[in-house]
Specification:
single chain, Beta-lactamase, 2 domains, 6-stranded antiparallel sheet, 3-stranded antiparallel sheet, 16 helices, membrane
């Protein structure tokens, strides 16, 4: 073992159930996070599995409450593919088309995409050439693969890393075709069942989630809302519990898992990424973000610990990553301050006040026939194109318009209110102007004199 690893082990503080509970309760109290599920393992032993707080529908979160794990699903899809690889039914470094003949794209380079390149996100598929979120949403994995027939590649296969959900949707469809079974059925009998994960399953779309599963946060207040429409099977469709995620973390310690945890180049392996903690320890991880829920999993091979967290707030809050970070810091005997919730809450309150102020100013401007009312046409220009602006800020990621409302709800409230005020102000201004012009043009009748 390396000297660095030995030094790190010497500073570790063993995690006990009570310390996990304390860290989670402190976080929930400080942030207002409604609910979380946590699993902590050490080697093949379960240290703590528990639920905290409440679901979006008001029930207590328990160790068996199934919550979305979002893109943590990618490591599970990769595991399913690797099972077929170990059985000799799929060639990891062979072309995807050899196992999935229906995989066709408009770009001839797609013929050389390998299964490994799907799993390590170097296939050349990209948000820049295929709108996975803002385009038409499929209902099945087969439909998703069919949609790719008109898409191109952004790079040669194997040349560049680019995170793109359809890579894993194609991989999940490959599992269906090779196994001859629906993806959910295959996972249930060949992954979840053997690993002891009875609470877990996968779904195709956001509409298949069990009602309202999570929240957005406005000015620090969690608001239960349904997940916006999207297709996610293979890339983000798994629901799991603290109990099941503990079994999943323990499964990662089995012989033969090294290939899934080792990148060919860069930091992304097969459904996992690698890095270092703030103390310098090796970490193998993957996060998952929905717009109403987040998840995070981490393996710490130097100490043998595994950590999984699911929370029922969306990507903007980032609670799963933050809470898992506190648990890792607890293990490494580091002090991590609780998140500063004042600034985001103040920004949201400011935007809500701005929305109310915009209404008041519009009413005043219309009454006084102020010319500045025309400035309210500017939000009208931004409103329909806001998802393109956000996509550009997210370095070219594809974003649907409705998703922006989940990412920045207070800002979108102001933008919609300002746009409606702009429409109302312009219409009233035009109506008032027309009425005034009509009165000016109306001829004045001369008084009639009688003798």
């Amino acid at each position: 073992m390396h000297t660095l690893a030995l030094c790190l082990l010497a500073t570790l503080t063993p995690i006990v159930p009570s310390s996990v509970d304390t860290a989670v309760h402190e976080y929930l109290e400080a942030t207002g996070l409604p609910g979380a599920a946590v699993a902590v393992t050490h080697g093949k032993q379960v240290v703590r599995i528990a639920g905290y707080g409440r679901t979006a529908t008001g029930e207590p979160v328990t160790e068996h409450t199934a919550l979305p794990v979002a893109s943590v699903s990618k490591s599970i899809t990769a595991y399913a593919v690797m099972r077929l690889v170990r059985e000799g039914r799929v060639n990891l470094d062979g072309p995807v088309r050899a196992s999935l003949p229906e995989f066709e794209m408009a770009d001839p380079r797609a013929a050389s995409i390998t299964v490994r390149q799907l799993l390590n996100q170097t296939s050349g598929l990209s948000d820049r050439t295929f709108a996975a979120f803002s385009g038409p949403q499929p209902r099945t994995l087969q439909e998703r693969v069919a949609q790719l027939r008109t898409a191109g590649l952004a790079a040669d296969p194997g040349a560049e890393f680019e995170y793109h959900n359809p890579n894993y949707q194609v991989a999940a469809r490959l599992v269906e075709v090779v196994s001859g079974r629906p993806f959910d059925s295959y996972l249930r009998d060949n992954v979840f069942g053997p690993l002891g994960m009875p609470d877990s399953r996968t779904v195709d779309t956001a509409a298949d989630l069990p009602g309202t599963v999570g929240h957005i946060t406005i000015a620090g207040l969690p608001v239960a809302v349904p997940e916006p429409p999207a297709f996610g099977n293979g890339s983000g469709g798994v629901l799991s519990s603290a109990h099941d995620m503990a079994a999943w973390l323990i499964a990662q310690t089995e012989p033969g898992m090294e290939e899934m945890h080792t990148p060919a180049k860069g930091s992304y392996a097969l459904g996992w990424s690698v890095g270092r903690t703030e103390s310098g320890a090796r970490i193998i991880k993957h996060s998952g973000d929905l717009f109403t829920a987040t998840a995070y999993q981490a393996l710490l091979p130097d100490s043998g610990y595994g950590i999984a967290v699911m929370t029922n707030t969306g990507v903007t809050a980032g609670d799963a990553v933050a809470l898992a970070g506190r648990l890792i810091a607890l293990l490494e005997n580091r002090s991590v301050p609780l998140p500063n919730v004042f600034l985001p809450r103040a920004v949201d309150l400011g935007l809500l006040l701005a929305a109310a102020g915009t209404v008041a100013l519009t009413v005043r401007g219309v009454r006084r026939r102020s010319r500045w009312i025309y400035l309210l046409s500017l939000p009208l220009v931004l409103l329909p194109s806001i998802h393109w602006v956000v996509g550009w800020l997210y370095r070219g990621r594809d974003v649907a318009w409705i998703q922006v409302a989940y990412l920045y709800p207070a800002f979108m409230i102001w933008l919609v209110v300002a746009s409606l005020c702009g429409i109302a102000g312009l219409l009233l201004r035009m109506t008032t102007g027309s009425s005034r012009n009509l009165r000016k043009r109306r001829p004045t009748r001369s008084p009639q004199h009688t003798s």
